[in-house]
Structure formats: structure tokens, C-alpha cells
Write the C-alpha cells for this entry.
Amino acid sequence: MLKTLFQRGLALLGLATLAGCATTTDVTGPSGHPALWQVADKDTTIYLFGTIHLLPKDYAWRTPAFDQALAGSQGLIVETIVDQSNPQALAGELARLGFRDGLPPLTNRVPPEKRAGLEAAIAKSGVPGAAFNRMETWAAAFMLLGVQFKDLGLVGEEGVEAVLKSSFTQAGKPVGQLETNSEQLGMFDTLPESAQLALLEGAIDNPAEMRTQFEGMLAAWVRGDVASIAKTFNEDLSGSPELREALLRRRNANWNDWIQRRMTTPGSVFVAVGAGHLAGPDSVVDMLQKDGYRVRRIQ
């Protein structure tokens, strides 16, 4: 199931941002109601919005309740900020964490039956095979997943975070982050090789299967079906406690702590994180509720 997580889960965990991916496919979606929560006391309001990082162009997902929460927020907090005006910064972090000498050839790291597919994906990428041999397995997976997204027309700036950051920046409101680029990439760098290999295999799978998975994920998100999102992640992460801990539970615990600290400061802030972080057991919503906070769903 880990390959499924990599294909659809990045979009719901916030990690597709680092791959620079959002769709420009010209599809107009149904008007939906993605999940939105509120945590508030007498002088502080924090909105929690579950995002999806890959969206079709002109996809209808905004609602009056969402726009009202956005307008009333004094600042935006996202998972991480990718500086589109300075892509070298992210590239430098990727090179620092994702490349090293002395690794076995990439094709030797996968089972024999996967090698032909991996070689085809490498050839399609246009990157010399020798460069892949110096990549950590997770970094090669990121690179090849980008090729998959490109084949599906999944490039551009239509993702929720891009829309939100543009809106707050134009309004002169601050935009902050919960994690640095280095911290996000570092999560993958510390994964055991078995988990990294599962991600690599997922990155070279059938594009048609990937499209089907993405469409199902998108449908659950736009209708605000938190139960389906939670079920997806329980299934996809069931085979890897390491991935659940690194990509989901540990990050959610950190963000839960951040929100609780922020509740001591008056004002209103809009927090937008991947929808997978706000669904089910060990979610940010679940952790806040267990710590005694009233988390009210307003959409």
C-alpha cells in the first residue's frame, strides 16, 4: 500500500509542495465543501483548513464560509514555503540531503521485475542515469514522481496553498510556515531504506492507475469526506509504522503544540495543512480534542 500513499498521499500530506506540482488540466469541478474547523476562545481564533496540493484549473472549491474565514484572518500559516523566486534554495537543500557518493546503482536497489520500468522512467526524465545513481532512494522517487505528474498534465500553480499565499500576500498579510524545506526533506532522508524503496516503486507505476487514485482522493476532499480521507491513510500507512510516525504522527504532534501556543496570543490566523493531517486518529484535530480544546467544524 505504500506506493499508493506516495502517489495520492503527498497531495494530502503537504509534501507535493516540495515536488513543485499542481495541475493545470482544464477541468471544472463540482462546487464542494472541503472541511474547515475553528478553534476559538474569547480573543483568539484559529481556522484549520485541510488542503489538497494538486488541483485542476478552475476547480470549484471555495465557499462563502471559507471566504469569510479567510477575510477575517490576520495571517496565514502553511506547512512550508517554497520560494518560487529562488528555486536554487530548495535545489540546494535537495542536493545536500539527497545526493551522496558510494551508493549502489539505482536499478540494483529494486527487484529484478521492477528494473525495466525504472529504466524507462529514468530515460523519460531526461536526467542522466549516472546522476540517479548518486541519489538517495527517496530523492530519486521524488524526481521520477515529477515525471509522472508531468505526463498527467500535473504542473503549475493551481494548488490550494498557492492560491492562499497569493491572496494573503496581495492583501499585505503575513504568511508563515510550520516547517522549513530542510525539515520536510529531512523526514524522507531519515526513512529506512525499505520505506524509501516502496516510495520509489510507487513513483514508477502505471499513470492510468495514478489518475484513478488522484480522482478518488480529489472527490473525497471536495465533498469534505473526512472519514474517507482517514480510512485512506489508515490503510496506506498500515504497512509502515516508520512512515506513519515520520510523515504523520510526529508532524501532527508538533503542529498541535504550535496551535496551543498560538492560542495564547490574541488575533485570528488561518492554518492550511494537507487534509490527511486533519482526519482520523492521531490527526491534529484529534490531538487538540484530546487535550481539551473544542474544535468546531464550520464546513
In short: Residues 2-86+153-297 form one domain.
